Each structure stands twice: as structure tokens, then as C-alpha cells.
Amino acid sequence: MISVIGAGPVGSTAAKYCSKRYDVVLFESQVVSERRVQCAGLVSRSGLEKMGIKVSSSSSKSFLQNGVRGARIFSPSGNLLEVDGGKNKAFVIDRKEFDNYLLNMAIDSGVEFINERVNGKNIDEIIKKSEKLIIATGTNYELHKILNLKIPNRFLIGAQYEMKINCDREFVELYFNVPEFFSWIIPVDDHARIGLCTRKNPIRYLNSFIKKLEGDGRISNKKILNRNFGIIPIYDPKIRTQYGKIAVVGDAASQVKASTGGGIVMGCTAAKFASEEDYEKKWRSEIGRELYLHLLIRRFLNRLSDKNLDGLFILLNENKEIIEKEGDMDIASKLFLALVKNPRFMAKFLFHTPGYIYDMF
Ligand SMILES: Cc1cc2nc3c(=O)[nH]c(=O)nc-3n(C[C@H](O)[C@H](O)[C@H](O)COP(=O)(O)OP(=O)(O)OC[C@H]3O[C@@H](n4cnc5c(N)ncnc54)[C@H](O)[C@@H]3O)c2cc1C
């Protein structure tokens, strides 16, 4: 028997895959109908497809809230880079419904669901009974401490309000107006998710972002429909994720894109291998390079001054057609390779980029 702890998207996906070969028990501490999720809910079409989800199927209607075709990205001084990837390049999802959808898929494939918290009192018993234990507890690292597992060492803190705002339903907006990350406006239906991540004080930054949007006349109703806070682990390429019969997966193993904070697709991709003998080797060969590239992109962006970032936006704008053709939230390497192979882009990039690029590795 395999025990999976945590029925977020990653735990439910792991449980479903394991059920092909094993009896599986899936534990979840939250009452499913009331569960609190922390997410902007933006997932690429390619990511959903990779997870085996057909966006046109009737069952996916329960969680798909909106389809977006591109992004309007603003540099620190307000230069606009508009990327139009074509219809429904990415989807906005209702995370509570999405998590329940994946949980039901697991249950339908024969997984036994137990709505119970796993902690110091019952973990030894569960380990004894299990051939394998999969830890998919997200950013709750209580079991890591009990079992002496490595905890990711760097985090961002996210804050998000849902509010009515005047915006284009087909484009997400990203603003490079906070240190070491960005703010977002993600259109849902008659309202949007307005949020950001920072290393500290996210609420102060978010309130000042909202004030700015009010000043621009985009928010007339100040009512906050929903508030959302959470932490995002920054991918640690050296993190150990396999300890004998224990495998760690998803946010619990920092399998998150450091450039965007997105962890659903990466975690669920790793989850497919969680019951295998060489889980660590397999997930690294599938997504390790991609996660590392996102980390390098994040480190690079963090080192740029606002002026450098403005310059980078101008350069990217000049190469917009490459971004529109090759850009994909979940496969950064595709766009990266296309840009690197473009001599005009590379010549300008290397000319404008100071030496600190070389000490990122
Ligand atoms: C503000 C914010 C915005 C984000 N936006 C996006 C986005 O737009 N797109 C994207 O891809 N990602 C986004 N993310 C990241 C995304 O939410 C996570 O990567 C994703 O939820 C990871 O899934 P998981 O299953 O590993 O963990 P979780 O979704 O956290 O699930 C873990 C589950 O384990 C349960 N659990 C924990 N401990 C125990 C225990 N001891 N016993 C039993 N059950 C337990 C929890 O209740 C929970 O249900 C965002 C994160 C934040 C904070």
C-alpha cells in the first residue's frame, strides 16, 4: 500500500498515478468543501494538456473560469510589452474546484480518501503500514521536521485581493513594480485577482498598488471580495526529495517555477513518478532543467536595476514576434533557445548586459 499525504493538485495526481499499480490511501487535513487555497489560478493550455486535462471536455467546465490570449507586461517605468499568443493560450481556474476535480479523479481510480490530518501522533503507524509514503503537503513543512526531511530554504510571500476592476478579460497584466518579483491582474469574470509576491511586506505593496489603480480610475468599488495570502518556495536545485521509501513532491519539494511562482504543472509532472524506485532521477530528468532555467531567469531579473529592466523591455519589444511564437509559461526553454539562437537579439543583449550575468550559476 502507498500512503499519500496532502490532497492538493500534486497529491491527488500522485495518488491517481500510483493507483495503477498499488492500493493507495490519500490523506487530507482540510474539510474538502471548505478548503482554503492560495493561488492566482493561472495555468497554461500546454500545462493543462500535459496534465492530461482536455479544456474542451464538459468536466473541465467546473473549474475553468476564463481563457486568456496574452499578457500586457509593464516595466518599472511603465514601458509596455504586449504579448498576444492567440486565443486561450492560458486559463484562469477556480482552484477549489480544480483541486476537487483532481481529488475526484483519484477517488474514481480507486484511491481511498481519508479526511484526516497526519502528524506526530499517527505518522509512525502510517509509515509502518505503507510500502511507500508520498509527502505532498504543500508549504506545510510540519512532517518534514518530524521526519527530518530537507525543507526549501527560500520563500516569497504572496498577497492577493479579488476585486472588481476595469480590465480586458483576454489579457493578464503584469507589473514589475515590486522588488524581486511582479504584481499581477488576472481577469476572472466580472472581477479580477490583483496580487503580488515579495520577500517581505506584501500587504503594504499590494495596498499601494491598489491605491495606484484607484487613482488611475480603474477601481471604483473598493470592496474586497476575497483575500488570499500564502508562501511560495523558491526552487532549490540541491534539495533531496527521496529518502528510502519516502518521496517528497510539489511545493513540499520546491518544484515551483522561480520566474513566475507557478507550481501546479511542475508539481503534477513530478507526481507521476512519485511511486517509482528512481523518483528523484526521473523527475529531475523530466523537469529539472526547466526548473533550473526558471531559477536562472529569476536570479538574472533580480540583479537588474529598474533602468536595466526598462532596457530589457525595449529589447524584448523589438523581438516580440519570437516571444509570441515561442513563449510558453511552462516551457521557458523554448523561448530561451529561440532568443539565444537569434544573433540580433544576442548581440544587443550581451552588449547591454553587465558582467553580473556570469556569476549567476
Ligand atoms: C499567492 C499565490 C499565487 C499563486 N498562483 C499560482 C498560479 O497562478 N499558477 C500556479 O501554477 N501556481 C500558483 N501558485 C502556486 C501553487 O498554489 C502551488 O504551487 C500549488 O498549490 C502546489 O500544489 P501542492 O499540491 O504541492 O500543494 P497544496 O496545493 O498546498 O496542497 C497541499 C495539501 O496538503 C494538505 N496538507 C498539508 N499538510 C497536511 C497534513 N499534515 N496532513 C494532511 N494533509 C495535509 C493541505 O491541506 C493541502 O490541501 C500560487 C501560490 C501563491 C501563494
Summarize the structure.
This protein has 361 residues and is of the alpha/beta class.
Cofactors, ions, other ligands: flavin-adenine dinucleotide
- List unreliable stretches of 5+ residues: none
Which CATH-level-2 architecture of the largest domain? 3-Layer(bba) Sandwich
CATH superfamily assignment of the largest domain? FAD/NAD(P)-binding domain
Name the CATH class of the largest domain: Alpha Beta
Secondary structure: helix percent:
25-40%
The CATH topology of the largest domain comes to FAD/NAD(P)-binding domain
- Give the total of domains: 2
Number of helices: 12
Give the strand order, joined by hyphens, for the main sheet. 6-5-11-12-13-10-14
Mean pLDDT: 92
Biggest pleated sheet:
7 strands, mixed
| Rg calc | 21 Å
The coarse silhouette is: globular
Class of secondary structure makeup: alpha/beta
SSE succession? EHEEHEEEEHEHEHEEEEHEEEHHHHHH
Q: Strand percentage, roughly?
A: 15-25%
Describe the structure.
This protein has two domains: 2-290, FAD/NAD(P)-binding domain, CATH 3.50.50.60; 299-359, no CATH class. Helix 7 runs antiparallel to helix 8. Helices cover 36% and strands 22% of the residues. The mean pLDDT is 92. Strands 6-5-11-12-13-10-14 form a seven-stranded mixed beta sheet. A six-stranded mixed beta sheet has the order 8-2-1-9-16-15, with helices on one face. It is globular and about 60 Å long. By secondary structure, it is α/β, with parallel strands linked by helices. 41% of the residues are buried. Strand 1, helix 1 (9-18) and strand 2 form a beta-alpha-beta unit. Bound molecules: flavin-adenine dinucleotide. The site of flavin-adenine dinucleotide has 43 residues, from helix 1, strand 3, helix 5, strand 10 and strand 14. Flavin-adenine dinucleotide is lined by residues 5-11, 27-30, 35, 38-43, 117-119, 136-140, 142-143, 158, 160, 195, 228, 230, 232, 250-252, 256, 261-264, 267.
